[in-house]
Write a structure and sequence with these properties.
The protein is an alpha+beta fold. Helices cover about 40% and strands about 25% of the residues. The structure holds zinc ion.
Length: about 475
């Protein structure tokens, strides 16, 4: 018996020794410091040009008749005026409803790069804004307006960098494409049509860069320093409806289970069994990169996921939120409708859930699980619309290395890490023709600035506009 206790104690000591040693050895990987190369682009011109872009009211609406097409044409004319060298040296096409595609011929067609952006913006709620949303107002070192962050600034960065480099006689080693959509905010056809055009021309991009992550602080537990988060995949997206029909009648003599009662049971059954945790490549690599920068308690967990993954999973399931969304398919019930009167049983009751699907699953497999969980033949479960998760991009090789090098030059203090995007963006279409699609908004964004995206008082400090241009110059020079 004594031997048993001694052996057990030894095991416990060994266990703690292993997890503590692993946590102590879980240190940031050594990276070579990158010396920033100088960029002599015209800063004042860049700021003035972005203010001009903000003055174009390129607001997207789902209803085509509400869109002011003249503002979009004004924006495209502005590009021609501000970037004459780009128009002289590149071929220019207008593709699809509002897409524009520039092609800059390099010395080789072997490793083409695509710089994506969009020049439409979401509508504004004027009452909430304390500054004008479309005046291009510059005040105390800040440019105010819808689209400053999402994402006319990155579009500006591409165009300013190209104009600057081409004016100096620059010829890139490889072909470059600038692909801008005017309908990204309403999931329009422009970028898909651009992708089809590229595919038809046999182009396989070695690097695609679109908006997405950014240089941010305070987003990973226990990490204080800024992190440059590069989205290497997007979750799938699906709306599912749950419909029960033919259960109408007067509410004074109801059946033992009403239609709404059965739908409610379906909801609780689904919520009681969250989708299984899946540690996908973007999240595993994020834990492995940022976990090393974290405080000791978190390093204990992230260095020992072999034993703590179930613990982490249990915490995620309970807490919900972003960490949970990284680990699994999520299901949020968002709409419910029943009877129009309080004393009438609904002849048709319906609920809608919005799902974000983790890599490795599909819309079909997700629907199948929902049906199994609901286990009620009287409830019709069907997909309203859905998109499977896109392919996961590489975190090594040409595209990744060029991108991370330019980031390290521009934001040397930031730890660069892959991550998984929850939101759907136009870049998913490019995943069909490239394994090197990266989602990174080339800006350092505070929490307050991020709140302005699709919110009110969207604004950008002028020095961040300059940095965005510098970033694109540095990246393009190496391609
Ligand atoms: Zn955007």
């Amino acid at each position: 018996m004594t031997y048993f206790w001694i052996a057990l104690a030894a095991l416990v000591v060994a266990f703690f020794a292993v997890i503590i040693i692993r946590a102590l050895r879980f240190k940031p990987r050594a990276t070579e410091a990158v010396a920033p190369t100088g960029v002599a682009a015209d800063e004042q011109a860049a700021i003035a040009h972005l203010a001009d872009m903000i003055r174009c009211k390129t607001i997207s609406y789902y209803e085509d008749e509400r869109i002011d097409k003249a503002e979009f044409a004004k924006f495209r004319a502005l590009l021609r005026r501000h970037y004459p060298t780009v128009f002289e040296r590149c071929s220019y096409e207008e593709i699809g409803p509002s897409g524009v595609l520039f092609f800059l011929k390099g010395k080789s067609a072997e490793k083409p790069a695509v710089f994506m952006s969009h020049y439409d913006v979401v509508p504004v709620n004027e009452e909430q804004w304390t500054k004008p949303a479309f005046d291009g107002l510059v005040e105390d070192g800040i440019l105010w307006g819808r689209g400053t962050l999402d994402t006319k600034c990155t579009l500006l960065g591409v165009m300013e960098a190209a104009e600057h480099l081409l004016s100096d006689g620059f010829v890139p080693e490889n072909d470059m494409y600038f692909a801008f959509a005017g309908d990204e905010e309403v999931a329009g056809k422009s970028q898909p049509v651009i992708v089809e055009t590229l595919r038809a021309r046999g182009i396989v991009p070695a690097l695609v860069l679109d908006e997405g992550g950014a240089v941010v602080e305070g987003v990973f537990p226990g990490v204080k320093q800024p992190c440059a988060l590069i989205g290497i995949a997007e979750k799938g997206l699906m709306d599912v409806q749950f419909v029960i029909e033919g259960a109408g009648g007067h509410a004074s003599a109801p059946p033992s289970h009403t239609g709404i009662g059965r739908l409610a049971r379906a909801v609780t059954r689904i919520e009681a069994k969250p989708f299984p945790a899946t540690l996908t490549k973007p999240v595993a690599e994020m834990f492995d990169t940022l976990g090393r920068r974290s405080s000791f308690v978190y390093r204990l967990i992230f260095a020992n996921l072999w034993c703590f993954l179930p613990v982490l999973d249990a915490i995620c399931k309970k807490s919900g939120g972003e960490l949970n969304a990284m680990m699994r398919t999520t299901c949020a019930f968002t709409m419910a409708e029943g009877s129009k009167a309080s004393n009438v049983l609904p002849p048709r009751a319906r609920m809608v859930a919005n799902l974000r699907i983790i890599s490795g699953s599909t819309c079909e497999s997700t629907l199948k699980r929902l049906k199994t969980l609901v286990a009620d033949d009287g409830i019709a479960v069907s997909i309203i619309h859905g998109t499977d998760p896109c392919k996961i991009s590489h975190t090594q090789g040409y595209g990744w290395e060029k991108l991370t090098h330019a980031i390290a030059e521009t934001w040397p203090e930031a730890e660069i890490s892959p991550y998984l995007m929850f939101a759907a963006s136009d870049s998913r279409h490019h995943s069909a023709i490239s394994e090197n699609v990266y989602r990174f908004s080339t800006m350092e964004l505070t929490k307050e600035e991020r709140a302005g995206i699709h919110g009110h008082d969207e604004h950008i400090p002028l020095e961040k506009i300059v940095k965005t241009v510098q970033f694109y110059v540095r990246l393009m020079r190496t391609l």
